[in-house]
Amino acid sequence: MKGVPDPVVPAYGGACVEGLVPALLNRFEHAPPAWVPEPLAGAEQVVLFVVDGLGWEQLSERDVLAPTLASMTGGPITSVAPTTTATALTSITTGLPPAAHGVLGYRLRVDTGEVMNVLQWRTPSGDARSSIPPARFQTVPAFMGRPVPVVTRAEFASTGFTLAHLGGARLHGWRMPSSMVQEVADLLKAGQGFVYAYYDGVDKVAHEYGIGAHYEAELMATDRLVADLLSVLPPGAALAVTSDHGQVHVGTGGLLLDGDLMEDVTTQSGEGRFRWLHARPGRAPGLAGAARDRYGDVAWVHSREEIVAAGWLGGRPSPGVEDRLGDVALVPFAPVAFLDGAESGEARMVGRHGSLTPAEMWVPLLAAQA
């Protein structure tokens, strides 16, 4: 269709978040690839700081507000598809593309036939930690099975998603950002060679307020947090800063799929900027064509097979995992979101992510030594 941009396809096997942890953990046995900033190559200790929701485009357009980040070495790398926290964080911690680890989105159809919110680990029936054990849903150990300490919000410790993407890791909880810095400092003093730290403030503010004054205030606060982390690095240590995805300012409006189209749909999964439609038996081909005719001016509309073949997921998922996907995906390149009436909370989000636009796909990889 005329005027449709090309998606930014994840650079699996190259400058992509899924390759970062293996490169850093193996830096003494193998020289890191050229896309890994030089300060990390010979560092005796490394802190990997993941700032949820900090896209490269949003940061580079506001570098005057983030002088610490602007002074660091590095540039953009790609996230994974979809550009959503559940999928991208799992790729970061496991070092694998989504097709391999199986956490293929924010809301996924599970074996019960229900749709599970992965971050909450809930289905319409309630808490799913017993019926869908996280360690069976995602079986790959975090950090290549190595005992890496994780500094994250204390309230995340017992969640299903934490068990799925950080299984086996040693958690060090924080409730205030200052405590996060202190936990990192203590671990470095104890001689830890690699520390993983996670902060979700940028993403929370973007969802609630979009990309505006509140976002910029949070970016400045995050930059000060990065400066605090740099200040506690011992000699020979380095800090790496990256993210899971960027953001698009969509506003509070959204698109509800037309009623006649929904006659061929049993349920929806995914999220507003990577919406999966699950077709009634035999209706998938016609649904893909109808959705493309209706929404092809604002979104990439592809069948499941087309998305797998295009390499968006980094390979073909195993049959049981592939069943978590829908039949047709609507992935907006315009600043819109496709709403699902069954997910009421999502409608209130102002800033969003999930698609393969440059604003969502490119994330920073920046580094500095003590």
Helix-strand blueprint:
Elements (H helix, E strand, L loop, with lengths): L19 H6 L19 E7 L4 H5 L6 H4 L2 E6 L6 H10 L3 H4 L5 E3 L5 E3 L4 E2 L2 E2 L6 H4 L11 E5 L6 H6 L4 E5 L2 H13 L4 E6 L1 H9 L3 H19 L5 E6 L5 E2 L5 E2 L2 H4 L2 E7 L2 E6 L4 H12 L3 E5 H6 L9 H4 L5 E5 L5 E2 L11 E2 L5 H4 E8 L1
Parallel strand pairs: 1-9, 1-10, 7-8, 7-9, 12-17
Antiparallel strand pairs: 2-19, 3-4, 5-6, 10-19, 11-18, 13-14, 14-16, 15-16
Average pLDDT confidence is 96
Termini, distance in Å?
Answer: 51 Å
Question: Can you tell me the CATH topology of the largest domain?
Answer: Alkaline Phosphatase, subunit A
**Percentage beta strand:** 15-25%
Q: Fraction of residues in helices?
A: 25-40%
CATH architecture of the largest domain: 3-Layer(aba) Sandwich
The counted number of beta strands is 19
Largest β-sheet summary = 7 strands, mixed
Shape annotation: globular
In CATH terms, the superfamily of the largest domain is: Alkaline Phosphatase, subunit A
Give the C-alpha Rg.
20 Å
Strand arrangement, major sheet: 2-19-10-1-9-7-8
What count of helical segments does DSSP give?
15
The total domain count is 2
By secondary-structure content and strand pairing, the structural class works out as alpha/beta
Low-confidence stretches: none
What top-tier CATH class of the largest domain fits best? Alpha Beta
